[in-house]
Amino acid sequence: MKINKLLVAFLLLAGGLTACKSSRQTPETVAENFLRAYLTCDYEAAAQYCQPEAAAFLTDSQEELNTLPQEIQEEMRRQAAGIQPSLLQVTEHGRDTVCIDFCLRLDSLHHADGQMLLTRNAEKEWRIQGW
Length: 131
Description:
- The protein is an alpha+beta fold.
- It has a single domain, classed as Nuclear Transport Factor 2, Chain: A.
- It is built from five helices and four strands; from the N terminus they run H-H-H-H-H-E-E-E-E.
- It has a four-stranded antiparallel sheet.
- Strand 2 and strand 3 form a beta hairpin.
């Protein structure tokens, strides 16, 4: 009986630890979520995936966007909706830094390549350092 309780307690603890670990986002997930928010001109949402310095830039961008006439904001969002992001390559630079190469495609003829640098914050969560 004591062994069964001990085994159940161990399984619950292991399950809880696994659930906690799996809730952390990978660098790829952070990059994809960031690009999705950024390309829809939702700079506040994009800032949540960034380190404080990069987030401050996006917060300023959101404030500037909010000053534009509604028609221009909607047109920006409409045009950005056609851009398809793709992650191309992830390169690790130590345990707490990765570089992700990405491509933004408007159509088969128009695309732009870029890179973003992700680092871990104090809580060991991946955040965009710069792009």
